[in-house]
């Protein structure tokens, strides 16, 4: 919305939320999320044509176009628990829009939703419409965190789905005109509603599938002595495949991939397509396998026990350049190590202690529900210590795990870290950021995902 305000000075954008603390933060100097370049965009527009407010009803009733970006968590109970999207927040947003509207509106689905959600929303709006015309559009978002502003300035494509009626086409044209302020028209794709909704789930499923494919290869590389970076490079040189999204890792995280694939799986099952559902389920299974495999490597390398041993965790966010920890592989790796009674010292440049403690206490799928429904920060996790410096985290540690590819982890003084660690000193690089040869020369025992193994590790094979 900030980018729309920046690129379309004549359009007034009001961002509304029922959370007072959220809106207060958006109106302050310390924005509630970290995203490179975002501060600048917000500061340029805020107070001019970009406003943050808790007066939801006023702004919705005044708007011509309403974008709905509420969360759509995975259901934790009832029908479809663990797979289907929970549309509670979407439904109440739609009911509110119907209640407060006095003029015709275009309602845009911005949250990622199951296919055919627009139909349900349309029913809520039209059954409560008092003669008002509502046009529903699906306009899924393809930006990635950490590069959001660049992605929005220069998108590969913008997708707008709508009804194939004249009114539906008029609504599509209205939204296309907004994006056409800065996006070349040949990159604005228009489709029917269901295609737009499904394309979003499909794009994320394809991206995640690439990562699971390369991660599956990483296990085979370790077993055979091949190097996954070399394999990915060679494979990615095929222009039909392309080089992006082939970095082997400890697993993908983030608020979208797993949730969207689970959602896709559920939709396939509901449509009587178990083979298709199982195919996509496997992408998640490999991701879980990769995280388990990583923990098992650590434990087996360290004489089959990490009980009472200090392990430094460098990086907790799900990727670099974000403070977001939703579904980060670090949660599963840390829980695995805590299960084996390790003592963790965690450092991430953008994630604070409260967030980490909350993440480690939370149940699977609870993360996307409002904070007041989540468990309180547990003071009971005494095994976890959060510090603000990689050197403090690694001091007297038996092992170091790199779980996010922050640039600063490439240039740490590893000699200093080695000198201050217990011996033998282990490094488990879940993101392939360190120079293994240099670290081995210092004296570390190094494990890097999908790379030829140290003799030490070969002697202690990890059983997943
Ligand atoms: C993803 C998609 O890339 C966006 O297009 C989409 O709009 C977004 O989800 C969404 O649905 O909102 P995001 O989750 O922000 O974006 O970040 P990604 O860059 O896709 O990374 C996801 C995870 O995959 C991260 O944990 C990352 O470290 C991991 N990853 C990525 C790998 O392990 N290897 C790779 O080669 C690339």
Can you lay out the helices and strands and say which pair or pack?
Layout: H1 2-7, E1 13-16, H2 20-26, H3 38-45, E2 50-53, H4 56-62, E3 65-68, H5 88-100, E4 105-109, H6 117-127, E5 134-138, H7 148-153, E6 158-162, H8 166-179, E7 188-192, H9 193-224, H10 228-236, H11 257-270, H12 274-301, E8 310-314, H13 329-339, E9 343-347, H14 353-361, E10 384-386, H15 390-394, E11 399-402, H16 414-419, E12 426-429, H17 436-442, E13 445-448, H18 455-459
The protein binds uridine-5'-diphosphate-glucuronic acid.
Family: Belongs to the UDP-glucose/GDP-mannose dehydrogenase family.
Catalytic activity: UDP-alpha-D-glucose + 2 NAD(+) + H2O = UDP-alpha-D-glucuronate + 2 NADH + 3 H(+)
GO molecular function: NAD binding; UDP-glucose 6-dehydrogenase activity
Give a nutshell description of this structure.
Belongs to the UDP-glucose/GDP-mannose dehydrogenase family. With 464 residues, the chain is α/β, with parallel strands linked by helices.
Structure description:
The protein has 464 residues and is an alpha/beta fold. 43% of the residues lie in helices and 12% in strands. It contains 18 helices and 13 strands. The protein has helices at residues 2-7, 20-26, 38-45, 56-62, 88-100, 117-127, 148-153, 166-179, 193-224, 228-236, 257-270, 274-301, 329-339, 353-361, 390-394, 414-419, 436-442, 455-459, and strands spanning 13-16, 50-53, 65-68, 105-109, 134-138, 158-162, 188-192, 310-314, 343-347, 384-386, 399-402, 426-429, 445-448. The strands form four sheets. The protein has a six-stranded parallel sheet with strand order 10-9-8-11-12-13, with helices on both faces. Helix 5 (88-100) runs parallel beside helix 6 (117-127) and helix 9 packs across helix 11 (257-270). The radius of gyration is 24 Å and the shape is globular. 40% of the residues are buried. Bound molecules: uridine-5'-diphosphate-glucuronic acid (UGA). Its EC number is 1.1.1.22.
């Amino acid at each position: 919305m900030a980018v729309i305000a920046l690129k379309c000075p004549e359009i007034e954008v009001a961002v509304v939320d029922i959370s007072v603390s959220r809106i207060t933060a958006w109106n302050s100097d310390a924005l509630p999320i970290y995203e490179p370049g975002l501060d600048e965009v917000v500061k340029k527009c805020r107070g001019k044509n970009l406003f943050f407010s808790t007066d939801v009803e006023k702004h919705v009733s005044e708007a011509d176009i309403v974008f709905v970006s509420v969360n759509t968590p995975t259901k934790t109970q009832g029908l479809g628990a663990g797979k289907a999207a929970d549309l509670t927040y979407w439904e109440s947003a739609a009911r509110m829009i119907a209640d407060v509207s006095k003029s015709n509106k275009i309602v845009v689905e911005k949250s990622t939703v199951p296919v055919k959600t627009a139909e349900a929303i349309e029913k809520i709006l039209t059954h409560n419409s008092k003669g008002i015309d509502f046009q529903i559009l699906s306009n899924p978002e393809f930006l990635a965190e950490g590069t959001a502003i660049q992605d929005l300035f220069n998108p590969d494509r913008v997708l707008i789905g709508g009804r194939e009626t004249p009114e539906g086409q008029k609504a599509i044209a209205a939204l296309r005109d907004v994006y056409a302020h800065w996006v070349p028209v040949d990159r604005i794709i228009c489709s029917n509603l269901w295609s737009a909704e499904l394309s979003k789930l499909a794009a994320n499923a394809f991206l995640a599938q690439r990562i699971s494919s390369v991660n599956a290869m990483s296990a085979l590389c370790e077993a055979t002595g091949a190097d996954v970076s070399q394999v990915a490079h060679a494979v990615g040189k095929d222009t039909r495949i392309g080089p992006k999204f082939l970095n082997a890792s400890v697993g993908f995280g983030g608020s979208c991939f797993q949730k969207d694939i689970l959602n896709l799986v559920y939709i396939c099952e509901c449509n009587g397509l178990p083979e298709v559902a199982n195919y996509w389920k496997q992408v998640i299974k490999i991701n879980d396998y990769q995280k388990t495999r990583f923990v098992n490597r650590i434990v087996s390398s360290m004489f089959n026990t990490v009980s009472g041993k200090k392990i430094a965790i460098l990086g907790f966010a799900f990727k670099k350049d974000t403070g977001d920890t939703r579904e980060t592989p670090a949660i599963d790796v840390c829980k695995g190590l805590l299960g084996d009674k390790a003592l963790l010292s965690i450092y991430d440049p953008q994630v604070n202690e409260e967030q980490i403690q909350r993440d480690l206490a939370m149940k699977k799928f609870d993360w996307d529900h409002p904070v007041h429904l989540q468990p309180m920060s547990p003071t009971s996790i005494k095994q976890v210590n959060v510090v603000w410096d990689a050197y403090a985290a690694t001091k007297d540690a038996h092992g170091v795990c790199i779980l996010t590819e922050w640039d600063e982890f490439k240039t740490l003084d590893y000699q200093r870290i080695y000198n201050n660690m217990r011996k033998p000193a282990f490094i488990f690089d879940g993101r392939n950021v360190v120079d293994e040869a240099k670290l081995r020369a210092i004296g570390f025992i190094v494990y890097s995902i999908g790379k030829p193994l140290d003799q030490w590790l070969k002697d202690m094979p990890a059983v997943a």
